[in-house]
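=== Per-residue structure ===
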Amino acid sequence: MLKKTILSGVAAGVFALASVGEAAPLPSSALHVAVTSQRVMNAVTVSDDKRLFVSFPYWGGGSEPGPTVAELDAKGVPHAWPDESWNNRGHEHDLLHNFVRVNAIRIGPDGYLWVVDSGDANVGGKPNPPDGAPAKLVAFDLSSGKPVHTIVLKQGTTPHSYVDDLRFHGDTLILTDAGDPGLILVNLKTGQQRRVLQHAKSTTDERPMYAEGKLLISNGKPARVHADQLEVSPDGSVLYFQPSSGPMWKISTADLENPTLNDEDLSRRVSLFYDTPTTGGTVIDGQGNLYVSDVNKLRLLKITPQGRASVLIADKRLVWADAMWIDSTGKLWIPAVQLNRTASFQADGVSRVQRPVAIYTLDLGLEPQHRF
């Protein structure tokens, strides 16, 4: 009976929150090309001293070989970060000192470059190989290039996990599991790893995903990408999160990190925030406004902390806008990764990615959100 009551409230909430405001979107001329590449770049992060880092996913392919994680020089040329050895997939047996399948990068509030390596993971298919590379987090000191933290995520993952993205709240690292629905909490002080909201409605992709007007298909059936995007509010009190299909939910970080609450308790404390469309990436500014990519209509939505949405910009170049970043100058960085056009999502297995792939910027003067 309780579950039925919750679902009824959610359905009503989705209907109430789905409207988009009438604020005039930015013109296409506001969208600037910052970086181009013959290889797919799926994430970008910029240090306060303007060092620019990008990652290249294993699923992106490309006509040129190159590193998995790179720092771009002033001319936009990628250089393996922290060095060639870390980016040599031939060393996959060295699990602690080699990138396998990097899915996200971001500079944390500690100033380190954090890398989310999903390891040998299969999304939506057979279980991950038991003897394969496990998922891990590695944090690098930007000055020396040396790893400061290396966290193997065996305790917090399952045979179907695909560790997707990362955010910070004090000593807690919060990760999404896009393969086996749930969130993973890692306590930096104790090293404890804990899974929460496993197979909850809020972490599970339960509806079709659409990109550029087409149903997203993988392995001959509708694609499913579970818990994916997440953001922490500027004051650290709220976690926003969602499967890639939407909608977006929220929960207080105090509840989320309370070890005495089981998943049933936590689910009661989750509430619907906004009925987001199929989403590639999100970012939050220092005022608590969320920027969400609508990969079906090729646009970015701005959603206020009160749940009011407007179209920030709509542009045909924003094909699967992914992991975005707000730098110290208030510039919004937007990788357009064309995920839906890659071979994995084509019925004939042939990539439709149009090269070069680009990262765009919007000069918005936003307040960055780097506190948590």
